[in-house]
Design goal:
Elements: E1 6-10, H1 15-28, E2 31-38, H2 46-54, E3 60-64, H3 66-79, H4 96-110, E4 114-116, H5 125-136, E5 141-143, H6 154-163, E6 179-182, E7 187-190, E8 220-227, E9 230-234, E10 237-238, H7 241-254, E11 259-265, E12 271-277, H8 279-295, H9 298-317, H10 323-335, E13 341-348, E14 351-358, H11 366-369, H12 381-402
Helix pairs in contact: 1-6, 3-7, 4-5, 7-8, 9-10
């Protein structure tokens, strides 16, 4: 790759990206532009600005992307009820395409020829970032330090930081922390004390949720309003997407909702153990499914459920900007046109349950389903329905019987 002249670095101000900043200056000799995205990670971002300034950076971008993140990325994903490997709500995965998109936009704005990320060569994020970059700018140059340098361990990183006077963050126990990624949808923790999948995660790993056993002894009831598949209100109060998710995070966290200990299959082939906290997202998923139950046609709902694992895998693997994800999104969004109304939920000691649903687009007919006498459904019709559906089964059995075979 030609020597880069100007690079936009996805910069958090943490240990890894602070080292990368210095490395880009020393080893690549290029001008560095820093970009720090506020995706609701809950951290003060001004320290990142001060660190960048101290490193001599002239162009520093710190942007509040919370509303765009929830509106244009999280909510479309939740219309699909997306779960990777049946459990993971894709909190890290869905943030990467937005960061990549904004990096490319900034690169065009400042005239940079390169972009850089801090993802390791072992993980999923390198794929997610770079697929996003190339989908949006096929000629962009990508710098991935973890695939180039020899700082391939935590020990070497800490030594490099000490040598160059780079501040090292410490956790409450005075140690360099395990790996944490956070945004408005979730927190993800990996490494160090979490690397043995047979050891329970210690309490200090959890940041957004109380332990379910320590949650209140009385349940919390809330009502979430939906329009065309997107949550718009809590207890009748209209909220912006980011405000709504923030509120649900608070309610879920206080009730111990949204913890997940997952041993997942990374795109690159290895298994990894992650501890996730997705309090608001867990509530939102349950509420959305409750809204679909009363408003969506059976055939459309079942087809959408068949498409979901493929859709979730595309997001996990970094294909947000792919044609196939956009095709699936169009189908999913079409299915959400009637998904409007309210869902009432009960939050209690780590669990969230749907306890009520109401919609002007309801397909639920009490007249048809009642156990009492009705004038809308002739039960005798079910006999013909069953016989027609049983015809092929009867023919198979009759053939096998004639030929002396046992078909089970």
């Amino acid at each position: 790759m030609p020597t880069p002249k100007k690079v936009v670095l996805a910069y958090s101000g943490g240990l890894d990206t602070s080292i990368i900043l210095k490395w880009l200056q020393e080893e690549k000799g290029c001008e560095v532009v820093t970009f720090t995205a506020d995706l609701g990670q809950g951290e003060e971002l001004e320290p990142a600005r001060r660190k960048a300034e101290a490193a001599g950076i002239k162009e520093i971008f710190i942007e509040d992307l919370r509303e765009e993140f929830v509106r244009d990325f999280v909510f479309p994903m939740f219309r699909a009820n997306a779960l990777y490997e049946g459990l993971y709500l894709l909190g890290t995965s869905i943030a990467r395409p937005l960061i990549a998109k904004r990096q490319i936009e900034i690169a065009r704005w400042v005239g940079a020829d390169s972009v850089c990320h801090g993802a390791t060569g072992k993980g999923n994020d390198q794929v997610r970032f770079e697929l996003g970059y190339y989908a949006l700018d096929p000629d962009i140059k990508v710098i991935a330090p973890w695939r180039e340098w020899n700082l391939n361990s935590r020990t070497k990183l800490l030594a490099y930081a000490a040598k160059h006077g780079i501040e090292i963050a410490r956790d409450k126990r005075g140690e360099a922390p395990f790996s944490v990624d956070a945004n408005l949808l979730h927190t993800s923790s990996e490494g160090k004390v979490l690397e043995d999948p047979n050891e329970e995660a210690p309490a200090f790993v959890f940041q957004r949720t109380v332990a379910p056993e320590d949650a209140p002894d009385t349940p919390t009831y809330i009502e979430i309003g939906f329009e065309r598949g997107d949550a718009v209100s809590i207890d009748g109060e209209i909220n912006s997407p980011a405000t709504l998710l923030t509120t649900l995070n608070g309610l879920g966290g206080a009730n111990g909702i949204g913890r997940l200990d997952l041993l997942e299959n990374r795109y690159v082939g290895m298994k990894s153990r992650g501890i996730y906290e997705t309090p608001g997202g867990t509530i939102l998923l349950m509420a959305h499914r409750g809204m679909e139950q009363i408003t969506m046609d059976k055939g459309a709902m079942h087809l959408k459920d068949e498409l979901m694992p493929r859709y979730a895998e595309l997001i996990y693997n970094g294909y947000w900007f792919s044609p196939e994800r956009e095709m699936l999104q169009a189908a999913i969004d079409k299915s959400q046109e009637p998904v409007t109304g309210t869902v009432r939920l009960k939050l209690y000691k780590g669990s969230v349950s749907v306890v009520g649903r109401d919609s002007p687009c309801s397909l639920y007919s009490q007249e048809h389903v009642t156990f009492e006498e009705d004038d809308v459904y002739d039960q005798a019709d079910a006999g013909g329905f069953i016989k027609i559906n049983a015809l092929r089964l009867r023919l198979v059995k009759a053939r096998d019987k004639k030929e002396g075979r046992n078909s089970g």
